[in-house]
Write a structure and sequence with these properties.
This protein has about 300 residues and is mostly helical. Helices cover about 70% and strands about 5% of the residues. It is built from seven helices and six strands. It has a two-stranded antiparallel ribbon. Helix 2 packs antiparallel against helix 3 and helix 2 runs antiparallel to helix 5.
């Protein structure tokens, strides 16, 4: 069976195109450092790449949430630490006020100092993070604490109203409550301080010594317990982020194994593809050197 001139030409052209395509792929793998630059390069490998990239993207999202949660909790702890310091000051004032040698002017001055502490505690109870009140439960756009002529008012979310907890998903199937509500922490403190202020103003020395100081100690103990819980959550979240980062590093290593070019092998493949392409070009040039008479002989 004779092979036509047209068939020879077509086969030659196809050979050149195939060699050029292989050369282009090899060149791109070396220049980009990636073995897979499009799905057709390795369909199975492409699936693995997409899976690993999706896992790392999910980890990054969770780590961003963890960062938010840690910052929220750190702001909470800072406010509680300052409140603790104010309670310690109030305790010192209470011990001074229990001294029977103080005159009315001195007691009025001490009562006024407790009033200033109350104002500062309310301000701390209305602390915010990124424009959201941290002790207001889910009602983060409303200042939770206020003082009125009739007493103290809490306007935030609570367990009783079902909107007290702020919970965030920090990993697959893992949720963490990142807040404490002002009704649980600050309202008892404010009540204790107000009673102390009134007892100082009215000269109730026995009540100051036997009740008010003890109540302050109770609130200091409560604050310590709340801060311990906040600190434990911060430590847990930091550990969770560290584990996520270790998983991400492992995924990135696997991604490199699947996707990246082995540069030593890549250079060999590129040289081989280039040689094959040049050989195809030479063969084509040799084919076209023949004239029509050469094919008719």
């Amino acid at each position: 069976m004779r092979i036509s001139t047209q068939q020879i030409v077509q086969d030659t052209i196809l050979g050149v195109e195939d060699a050029y395509s292989r050369f282009g792929v090899a060149e791109k793998q070396v220049s980009t450092g990636k073995r897979i630059n499009q799905p057709s390069d390795d369909p199975v490998g492409t699936g693995e790449v997409l899976k690993l990239q999706q896992l790392n993207s999910q980890i990054n999202q969770y780590n961003n949430i963890i960062d938010l949660a840690v910052n929220f909790l750190s702001t909470t702890d800072s406010a509680l630490s300052s409140t603790n310091n104010l309670l310690q000051q109030a305790r010192t004032i209470a011990l001074q006020a229990a001294n029977s040698s103080l005159d009315d002017s001195a007691r009025a001055n001490l009562a006024n100092q407790i009033g200033q502490i109350i104002t500062q505690v309310i301000s701390l109870g209305n602390s915010s993070y990124e424009g959201r009140y941290i002790f207001a439960g889910q009602r983060t756009k409303t200042a939770p604490l206020a003082q009125t002529p009739s007493g103290f008012v809490y306007s935030g979310g609570s367990a009783a109203t079902g909107d007290g907890n702020i919970s965030l998903d920090v990993n697959v199937g893992e949720s963490v409550t990142i807040n404490v509500t002002g009704d649980q922490v600050f309202m008892p403190i404010l009540s204790t301080l107000k009673s102390l202020q009134d007892d100082i103003a009215n000269g109730q020395l026995s009540t100051i010594s036997n009740v008010d100081v003890a109540n302050i100690d109770t609130q200091l103990g409560n604050l310590l317990s709340v801060r311990a819980g906040v600190g434990a959550k911060i430590d847990m979240l930091n550990g969770e982020k560290l584990r996520n980062e270790q998983v991400s590093i492992g995924n990135t290593s696997l991604l490199s194994q699947v996707q990246d070019t082995d540069m030593a092998q890549g250079m060999v493949d590129l040289q081989t593809a280039q040689t094959a392409y040049q050989a195809a070009l030479m063969a084509t040039a040799h084919t076209y050197q023949y004239s029509l008479l050469d094919f008719l002989r």
